[in-house]
């Protein structure tokens, strides 16, 4: 008798059928065939539990394991040996990536027992492309910044009536020239355009106010990003916090309002930890010419006048 099993892996989910007299070894081989992975761990059930695929147990039958109708979650296992630690001051040492401003990892997720997993914050690099990276990851793009910037630029040039100087604040050609540069910030205009290009609602949750800005309402599916004043991160769902980001769920039906409720709860926790920058009065410095101004409006004006787009928040001490 054939039994149905769903296989969820980094590249998507597929539904297969396997004979209930088949062995665990045959299931493992089927997973390898469907996913293209050779090293992985498997989990199933609610709440998730590990499926022991040790060689000594692979003669067990699928029937005995009671896997009919189950979803098997496939998590890649990296077998690459760790690189030797670099000594302090080494020329090859890399700067640390953007971190969660001192917030502990267990404070960037909320358990969601009703769905057997966690809603989590995926922190983006602080490299002036965070919005593009945050959105690009929700649709599975690798190194998305250049691709998305080019798509936004072409969209603007192809819609001159909709995106004119009055909307953009400058001539469209100059605007797209700046937007193609990797150090130019993206914002509401770009989110609205990407929503149209990919036919997806982009829900942006503001940490300070907990407001949800929806770009592209009435689309069939939704992705969620988090805005903390001068930075964007991605919101995702994972079945287990130990799983790699490649198996995250990052797209939901727009009928699913529960995920927005849960995401706002996570944003509220981050708000309590002051995971945001108050852009109305924070002091900002241009890293190119040392100009100093107050708030994002002055920064945007400086960017339009000079083309400079590399800014940093100045820390004022008593």
UniProtKB/TrEMBL annotation:
Q: Which residues form the OTU domain?
A: 119-238
Spell out the GO cellular component terms annotated for this protein, sorted alphabetically and separated by semicolons: cytosol; nucleus
| Chief location of this protein within or outside the cell | cytoplasm
This entry's Gene Ontology molecular function terms read: cysteine-type deubiquitinase activity; zinc ion binding
Keywords, in A-Z order: Cytoplasm, Hydrolase, Metal-binding, Protease, Thiol protease, Ubl conjugation pathway, Zinc, Zinc-finger
TM segment ranges: none
Looking up Pfam families in the UniProt record yields: OTU, OTU1_UBXL, zf-C2H2_OTU1_C
Reactions accelerated catalytically? Thiol-dependent hydrolysis of ester, thioester, amide, peptide and isopeptide bonds formed by the C-terminal Gly of ubiquitin (a 76-residue protein attached to proteins as an intracellular targeting signal)
Q: Name one GO biological process term.
A: ERAD pathway
Q: What is its EC number?
A: 3.4.19.12
The compartments listed are: Cytoplasm
Q: Which CDD domains match?
A: OTU_OTU1
Region feature (Disordered): 78-109
Function, as annotated: Hydrolase that can remove conjugated ubiquitin from proteins and may therefore play an important regulatory role at the level of protein turnover by preventing degradation.
The molecule here is called: Ubiquitin thioesterase OTU
Organism of origin: Corynascus novoguineensis
